[in-house]
Structures are given as structure tokens and as C-alpha cells.
Specification:
The chain is of the alpha/beta class. The chain is 37% helix and 25% strand. The chain has 2 domains: 1-80 and 171-252, Rossmann fold (3-Layer(aba) Sandwich), CATH 3.40.50.300; 90-170, no CATH class. It binds adenosine-5'-diphosphate (ADP) and magnesium ion.
Length: 252
């Protein structure tokens, strides 16, 4: 079985900081693969490397049978890789559904969505995009906000809206950077259910998350980073019993 995402000997150095050092792992298609570790461990840097925002100092990343070295973030998205960010990226001066439609511009091959809104010949695409965006909002549990401004939504709903926008490209793999940060227990439970639903439909999930209950409940496999290096890898059960992990991360 070939891996969907494979990371080999990955290094990223910023000035004097070795943010990611000799990291190796592979993620099988259809799995939930989580990356945990203390603040500054290199988790976000790792996601930025995988999604093409950063260039590795050393090492290789493969998506399917292709090296991603020469691919931009947009080209990776076209190949089915998408992500959400640690800090919310919602346009508050737009409606909720327009935010999701932003995620669709890749699929409609139209460069900027602005074009899609303006040209009369693109009206049909706009109608299709709106319909698809509405389906995605329903899917993530934001169906009540179809006519809302983004600014009228609760924080938990906005986090799910970002997922709807990421799902717009029909991804093979979705990378989530601390999606539960700032959510209350009810919102986190809704998010967990949503991530599970996304994985069950066959989308591979790479999850960076601090909420241990969420991570332990949802992951097939876990990677623990510490100071940029791999401290441990294993199932949630293996990780929760690993003495190095307990000492370094889970608080002894
Ligand atoms: N763009 C950058 N420029 C310089 N240093 C960075 C940059 N991004 C991250 N770092 C450094 O790399 C290390 C890992 O950061 P990060 O990947 O954000 O960790 P995490 O997401 O696990 O909290 C930290 O020491 C951080 O200061
Ligand atoms: Mg981070």
C-alpha cells in the first residue's frame, strides 16, 4: 500500500532555529494522522512545508507518486491537498456563503472569483458555485447561516465554515492546524464529529491539535514532535503509554 503523503528526511532552518529536523513519516490514504507537541515544536512549520508555503532546507515530500518540490500551494490544491490555518482566515466583510465560494474558484478554473461575479457568461458558474457552497455549508453544520454575514456567526460556526471552504476543492487530503483552539466543549464535540465524517467519506486528514481528548479519540496514528524532531510515533494507545512522551509532553 503506497502512502498518500510521505515525508522523508525533512529539515527547515530559520536563521539559527532548526524548526523541523530530520522528520520522516508517511500517511496512508483514508486515515486520520495527527501531529502533536508543545508550542514551538515545529507543527505549523511542518504543515507549511507539506502545503508548499515553505521550501524545505533539506528532504522530500511526496503526494501520491509525485514529489511536491516544484509545486506551488495552488498546484497542490489542484491535486487535492487543502488546509485550514491556525489563525482564522474568514473575510468578515463578506457573507458566509461567499467565503465558501472563495474556495471554489480553483475548481471553476476562473482565476479570481471576482471575474466569476462580473462576466455575464459566468453567471451559470456563479449559480453552480453558490449551490455547491450551500451544500458544503449544510455538510459542516452551517446551514442556518446561508443568508448571514460572516461577522454574525459564532466562533465555532466560523471554524466549521473554514472547513467548508477547504472542502470545496474536493480534497484527497486536508490539513488542519489546531482547529479546536478557542472552542468550547460543545463546539469541540461538533468539530470531532465533523472530522470523523470527513474521514469516513475517504478524505485523509492530517491534524495538528492540542486538545488531547479530541486527538486521542479521532486519530489512527500520532506523531509527536519536540524541538523539531520526532519524539515518538504510534497509535493513540501506544503514544499515551510512551514514557518519553509522558515525560516531555503530557506533563509526567
Ligand atoms: N517564518 C518563520 N521565521 C522564523 N522562525 C520561525 C518561522 N516559523 C516558525 N519559526 C520558528 O520555528 C519554531 C517552530 O515554530 P512552529 O512551527 O510555529 O511551532 P508550533 O506550530 O509547533 O507551535 C519556533 O521556534 C518558531 O519561532
Ligand atoms: Mg502552530
Amino acid at each position: 500500500m503506497t502512502a498518500l503523503v510521505e515525508v522523508k528526511g525533512l529539515d527547515k532552518v530559520f536563521g539559527g532555529v532548526h524548526a523541523v529536523e530530520d522528520v520522516n513519516f508517511s500517511v496512508e490514504a483514508g486515515k486520520v494522522y495527527s501531529v502533536i507537541g508543545p508550542n514551538g515544536a515545529g507543527k505549523t512549520t511542518l504543515l507549511n512545508l507539506i502545503t508548499g508555503l515553505y521550501t524545505p532546507t533539506k528532504g522530500e515530500i511526496r503526494l501520491g507518486d509525485e514529489s511536491t518540490a516544484r509545486l506551488t500551494s495552488n498546484q497542490l490544491a489542484e491535486r487535492g491537498m487543502c488546509r485550514t490555518f491556525q489563525h482564522m482566515q474568514v473575510c468578515m466583510n463578506m457573507t458566509a456563503i461567499e467565503n465558501v465560494m472563495l474556495g471554489l474558484h480553483l475548481r471553476f478554473n476562473s482565476g479570481l472569483l471576482a471575474t466569476l461575479f462580473r462576466l455575464p457568461s459566468m453567471r451559470r458558474n456563479e449559480a453552480l458555485a453558490r449551490e455547491r457552497a450551500a451544500q458544503l455549508m449544510d455538510y459542516v453544520g452551517c446551514g442556518d447561516y446561508l443568508a448571514s454575514e460572516a461577522s454574525a456567526m459564532s466562533y465555532g460556526a466560523l471554524k466549521r465554515l473554514e472547513l467548508a471552504r477547504a472542502l470545496a476543492v474536493d480534497p484527497k487530503v486536508i490539513l488542519l492546524d489546531e482547529p479546536a483552539a478557542g472552542l468550547n466543549a460543545t463546539e469541540t464535540a461538533a468539530l470531532e464529529e465533523l472530522i470523523r465524517k470527513i474521514a469516513e467519506q475517504g478524505v485523509t486528514v492530517i491534524l495538528v491539535e492540542h486538545d488531547m481528548k479530541l486527538v486521542m479519540g479521532i486519530s489512527d496514528q500520532l506523531l509527536v514532535l519536540n524541538y523539531g524532531r520526532v519524539l515518538a510515533e504510534g497509535t493513540p494507545e501506544q503514544i499515551s503509554q510512551n514514557p518519553d512522551v509522558i515525560a516531555a509532553y503530557l506533563g509526567g
